[in-house]
Amino acid sequence: MSLLVVGLSHRSAPVSVLERAAITPETQGKLLQDALAAEPASEAAVLATCNRIELYAEVDKFHAGVAELSTLLSVHSGVGLDELTPYLYVHYEDRAVHHLFSVACGLDSMVIGEGQILGQIKDALALGQELHSAGRLLNDLFQRALRVGKRAHSETGIDRAGQSLVTFGLQELAAGAAVEPWAAGKRALVIGAGSMSSLAATTLARAGVMELVIANRTLDRAERLTGILAEQTGPELRARAVPMDDVATELARADLVISCTGATGLVLNGEAVDEAVRDRNGSAESGGAPRTLHLLDLAMPRDIDAAAHRIGGVRLVDIETLAEASADAPMAADVDRVRGIVSEEVAAFGAAQRAAHITPTVVALRTMAADLVAGEIARLDGRLPGLGDKERAEIAQTVRRVVDKLLHAPTVRVKELAGEPGGAGYADALRELFDLDPQAVAAVSRADTNEPNRGRS
Hints:
The chain is α/β, with parallel strands linked by helices. The protein has helices spanning 15-21, 25-37, 62-77, 81-84, 94-104, 116-130, 136-155, 158-161, 165-173, 179-183, 195-207, 219-233, 247-253, 270-285, 319-326, 334-383, 389-418, 425-433, 438-449, and strands at residues 2-9, 41-49, 52-59, 89-92, 187-191, 211-216, 238-243, 256-259, 293-297, 314-318. It has 3 domains: 2-162, Glutamyl-tRNA reductase, N-terminal domain (Beta Polymerase, domain 2), CATH 3.30.460.30; 165-326, 3-Layer(aba) Sandwich (Rossmann fold); 347-449, no CATH class. Strands 7-6-5-8-9-10 form a 6-stranded parallel sheet, sandwiched between helices. Helix 5 (94-104) packs across helix 7, helix 5 packs across helix 16 (334-383) and helix 16 packs antiparallel against helix 17.
């Protein structure tokens, strides 16, 4: 069985395709179920963010696996396979491991070094565990990816190479000005109450906005978020929660809007934005100063109509804008150190997986040896019925020590050899040399495979 990933991201596909290919959390679950039902896959996990959709699987056939996973992505995204295929990338075995570890470190993010991807990888693992689609390989892979990402952030200055997508977007809106003085005193509206919206609200609160309104379809979630912000910032921040029906009213009052919902259609169409601007202009004509309406759309598919770009008095930054801006962003020197960590961890993960592959064979060998010892001791009891308990115990212990010593060196060495590149064949050699029952080895493998989902997080 081998690791395979098929996906598309901001690096391989235009935003227009990513936007159409975005899949909801409910669709992710169905995608995993269908992946497991497909013949080539025995495990599956999906990593879906605002700028990537990737399907990981353990497969027994490469070409059949690529075809099946590509088809599944097409079916569940609603984008035709012929249209989707040119934008798909495929990574296999160590290259797949290298890719996920790079993603976990923020090297493949739109904003180099951003840390939010770690939470998204954790969510992908949790979903795979919940649906029992992630077995030994993917549990080990995703948990190791989380550790690699944390190591990169703690051992290097990768955090200085980039920021969160929220901060990067605010910098683009501020057109080069420092975010905190630019945002200070503004009225802000955040649409949505998920993880990205929570990050946006926290960032705005720290930047010193005068008023922060959270709008969400489920009002109590918005109220919980405003409560958390109030605890963190104190009375100097005016934070309110409103239902989605009040967005049009709040839009006319706001200076800055950040939207990141899971909606499949537009949350703010061009007419709504245009009407809000007219209301603001009316206020300016009656004595108020004209104010630019700043819009930051971090959703995929987009929440805000792209036509808002053409409305006077509006500045819109969306995922497409950020993708263009990030292409020219400078990379910190620490990025090279992170790449070194990734390469080191890929090698260590590969060695551990190869060594683990031979463990069931070694366990089966030692089990067979123990059974032989037990059988010979029983036969000895039949031939020497008058043997005393002390003598019988000493003989049995001696035979076990002899067998253990004979097996110790070859089993330790075979594990070392199996951990090296090309070491997968040692398990087969061990089974042949000792005539091990394949079913006994498979039984050990099944027992080990069922173990990872117990008590893991």
